[in-house]
Structures are given as structure tokens and as C-alpha cells.
Amino acid sequence: MIQKLYAKNNNPLLLQSLVRQLQDGAVMILPTDTCYAFACHALKERPIERICRLRGIDSRKHPLSIVCYSLSSISEYAKVDNATFKLMKRNLPGPFTFILPGTSRLPKIFSGRKEVGIRMPQCAPLQQLIEQLEAPLMVASLPIEEGEDEGYITLPELIEERWSRQVDLIIDAGEGQTTQSTIIDCTQSQPEILRQGAGELIE
Questions:
Q1: Which of 72, 170, 180, 192 is paired with 82 by a 20 to 30 Å CA distance?
Q2: CA–CA separation, 126 vs 187, rounded Å?
Q3: pLDDT at 112 over 80
Q4: How confident is the model at residue 166 (pLDDT cuts 50, 70, 90)?
Q5: How far is the C-alpha of 117 from the C-alpha of 106, rounded, in Å?
């Protein structure tokens, strides 16, 4: 199933329906400000496990990422010192993933690495959904193999063709991007860029 969302003026009843599905453990594909991504309620372990299987992620070796609605909510799920908070404030919302020590608010599946990736994409439909959910989403970008058509991670109709039988819903917010987020490791004394992606970090 595919459902259209817009930058503004979305039907409140539709957003409420999407929130209920996430609360019930749904796995969706939705837009970010970079690639389309698998997503589920970040505090529910079973749908997270399902995404890990779809994405081929071992949570003991690979830090999982969540999308938060606001900077103020991040401290519930990650340990943030003053310098890191100022760095995030300069760059979020935007196409970045900040790796931070996780807190006990997160499910046990996050405890393998004891770290969490924090995202706040500049994507209005996604922001509206998280605001209504009042909880973060766990996200993992769609995979693409070398030489494969980029439409399978950017075009909702091709994403539906490939993944509609493996997820509960696909949210269409128009064509996505191919470049992934910039990853910054903030678990040491100095932040380190692990992957340069779409975001140019303002230090």
C-alpha cells in the first residue's frame, strides 16, 4: 500500500491513522531529506528487529539510528555534552547522523553497541509524523546494489514495486535523493566525520 503525504496541509485523520499503525508495530518506508528509509516506532523492539532483517543489519555491530522531532527531545535517548549540543544546534535539522552514547530509554536491541545515531532531517512530512507520534522513529536507509537503478531508492512507484510485500506501508512524498547523510562520531573528545554525505558540517 502506498500513501501520499505533502509538505503541508495533510489530513489530520490520515496522520492519526499513520501514528496508530506505528504504535501497533508497523514497518513503513518513508522519506527523509536524503534517501527513502525503512522506519518504525523506535521504542518497539519487534519492528526494529524486522527492519534489521530487511536491511541485513547486525545491531551488535552496527549502530542503529533514530529520528527525533526536536533538539530538546534528543537528551532522552542520547547522552549529549554541551559542545555536542552546540554542534547539533548549528547543523540540525539537516542531512546529518550524529553518533552518541545511548540512554536506557532505548530498547535492549540498541545496547549491543551502546551507541545511537541521532537524526533530525529537514523533511516536513516526516517532521509532522514524528510530532504526532510523540516518540522517535528508528530508520535505516533503503539498500541499493552496485549498478542498480537509483529509482529503487528515490522513486516511490519503484520502491513500491520492490518492497510492497515486505513492509506495511510506503509513504510517497515525491522523489527522494541518492546521497546519504553525513555521519559524525561524537563519542570521543573530538567529533570525527565517519562518512561525508549530503551535509556540510558547520563546526
A1: 180
A2: 27
A3: no
A4: very high
A5: 12
* Measured distance CA(80)–CA(146) in Å, rounded: 36
Collapsing DSSP to helix, strand or coil, 36 comes out as coil
First vs last C-alpha separation in the chain: 42
CA distances, 84 to each of 36, 67, 115 (Å): 27, 17, 15
Task: Decide if 51 contacts 95 (C-beta within 8 A).
Answer: no
pLDDT tens per residue, range 83-92: 999 999 999 9
Kindly report the pTM of this predicted structure: 0.94
Residue ranges per domain, the chain? 2-195
Residue 45's pLDDT is what? 96
Map 115-159 to HEC letters: EEEEEECCCHHHHHHHHHHCCCEEEEECCCCCCCCCHHHHCHHHH
Q: Report how far residue 148's alpha carbon sits from residue 152's, in angstroms, rounded to the nearest whole number.
A: 8
In terms of CATH architecture, what is 2-195? Answer: Alpha-Beta Complex (3.90)
Q: Which amino acid is at 148?
A: E
